[in-house]
Specification:
Number of strands: 6
Helix content: 25-40%
Number of helices: 5
Shape: globular
Amino acid sequence: KCAPSNNLNVAYPHFATATEIYDHLREITKPGGEYVVRNFVGVIEDISVAASTVETRLFPKDALDYYTKKNMGWDYSQEEYDTWQMPERGGEQGDYRDGMSEKITNVIDCLKTEPFSKRGIIPIPFATEGSATVDWTNQGQTKCCRELHFYLEDGKLKCTGIVRMQNANIFVKNIHFFATLIDHVAKELNVPVGEYTHW
């Protein structure tokens, strides 16, 4: 039981995989030299984990796996932490694990109970203290990802990510985590994975 498709993201640029969108982001930001991009919207048609594993010099496969495990709230070793944790890979801005297990459970319960719901969300910032205390000097408050919205459409689990990420180099870490999260929720709902819209 899913909502029929009436998705206006058809007007946005579509990319077959995360590699394609990453290459596009690098190309359009190359003139600036720092790979900074703002207000970009694109749709990734294949958001499977395999198609969303984009290795770079900054993020080899093992680093991607470590950060995804960390953000999912899964176990990781001290050796993984010592090897891969570093400020250049996002620091506190890319640490989404606070309450993640509970948030995932909430999304699954929401979409199992009300498949047409628009409330299947994972809010990232200000999970416990509220936005009234916002402080731009606190990297832990200025997360790269702001919200992930999960919805069932055309018999598939789809997701829209609202992201404040400015550096295209960090995209590969976030998209690997998003893909793993989407895959996990889809398996719990027993539905195939659909597309991902990146704001």
